[in-house]
User: What shape does this take?
Amino acid sequence: MAFYKQCVRLAAAALCLGGVARAQSVDELRAQFPGDYAVILDYHSDTRFFMEGDTPRAETKITEKLMILDDKANGEFNKYAVYHGDFNNMEHLEAYTDVPGGKRQKVTDFKTEDAADEEVFYDDVKKTEFDFPSLTKGAIAYVSYTQTEKELHLFSPFYFIRYIPVVHESYTVHFPSDMEVLYDVKNDSTRMIHVDKDERGRDHSYTFTGDHVRPLTSFANAPSAAWYEPHAIVRLGAYKNAAGQRVAYLENLKDLYAWDYGFIRPLDSLAGALRPADAPLPVPGDALLRSLADSLTRGLVTPEAKAASIYHWVQTHIRYVAFEDGLEGFIPRPAPLVCNRRFGDCKDMASLLTTLLRMAGLQAYFTWIGTRDIPYDHTDLPLPLCDNHMISTFRSGDRWIFLDGTDPNCIFGFPSAFIQGKQALVAVSPTEYKTLRVPVIHADSSGVTDSTYIAWTGSGLTGTSSVYYHGYYGSDVRDHLLFKDTTDARDYVKYRMGKGSNKFILNDYSIRYLDDASKLVNIRAGFDIPDYGKTVGSELYINLNLEKFFTGSAVIDTARRKVPMTHEYESTIDQFTVFAIPQGYELSYLPKDFTYSDDNMDFAIHYVQKSGQVICQQILADKTLLMGAGDFPRWNGAVKQILNHYKEQLVFVKKTAP
Assistant: This one.
């Protein structure tokens, strides 16, 4: 949805200015921030809430002062961008560089264009760019601009972490005494943010300040910044209108739901909550939809079978295309239009799903939800910031099933992977809602079963693999193969089936789509791995851990990484590698078994000799979606043990002649 992306962009782009107790020299700052080419001296965001008639508005002035510590900054920090859109107009943009010696060079060339996003077909957000001139050592770059916030429901959070160190920053919100303003400070366990409240007289203010704030290192498999970066979230709880009446705004979840429901009210009534089959058809195109719903559920008995059929049709016939154009980012389009066009965004697909399910006599509801990029619950933070997605929720008895039409290969009964564990806000009626926790699908329900048979050729290995993917793993394989040509498909199969070393050679392969309901996929392939294994005199050494789930890079640098680590979904990999004992050899050493288990993962390696073969079974179960920094030492200990066991090799010796 448009509003969340705007919040993130504006938080990242809002560069501010405040005051420091004493101006520091370049040399002092270089000593304080060794290795940095520039720092933000002052960083200030000053917001004023006010009434425009009976509508609350906000105006924010943002300023930043950048100190250049090294000539190498020139070319790296010149480019600057301000993001703005329908909900936050930008004006009074001014920028210049004060170069050493007292000369000021003003920026005169500003370029405004659409802020392109590869994942969004149309986005109303604009980007105004310019270049700071002459960023040489000792120069000070300055920028300021004003933004008018038209919709305070979408007022952005303020993040304190920036791309370079910040000497001083402040965030102030001014508001009249008859406004009720609330705030939350997130991810500030070290008390970095200082809060000052001035509630005297008719004009009140909250000021949030931070000093000597250093940037955080980026890491792979990390959640969004909202999970770990310190930030302040300010919201308008209530205000008084021109008549002096108190008007609730975003005081609680009831207020948020009332605002959200306003966007779906026309469609929710048109869809007709469980409208009887003989009721009048209220809109053109409804007859075609009812006919479609009837055809999709004809002969099906159970509610879940009917819902699954409708869901599958929407997944396979409606293409997901994201639109984010002002309020278009919030309002679902009518189901007949979505069906006729055969494409839509998440809200459009929720509209079509909800309508078709209700026409089939099923209980279905519009549902707001945030992806796992968003750490907030509606019940803790009643803001649109909690949501960036819309789905349909189907109820069958006591079971609630979350249906995301944007995922073409999601399994009926599974939520899309990126909303697992999230709190859903379900629209039951104009005044009634439910908050439901989306389930996390257990590791046993998504996985890989790999059966690999290998033989020694005298100079390497030759073999075949048959790998079954199910659950989220099966959905992933189908997603990746959806639009691939023959060459790309072969590359993907090689990536999936690759083993042993980078000398792996993929031979013939086949792909079978076995069960659409569980997304079961099977890939079979022949392969060769030259130069694998080693002979020393009469001994042959073979490592049966052809596919290592962990490498040395899996050990986390706990001194540097403090941010959590994420997994897309819980899963289990069960891998069997069967090695035919070469003729004329006998086994002289079989590695010991190893098992490990904790709250985050299960791991095991088992070896057995049987009928002229040695079988190695490797099992890995990822049992968590988010692992905090407190678990990193235990994780590292487990990985180091696993890496040691990966070094174990089978040893065979040539049989002696009788």
User: Anything to note?
Assistant: Residues 253-271 form the longest helix (19 residues). DSSP finds ten helices and 38 strands in the chain. The chain has a mean pLDDT of 91.
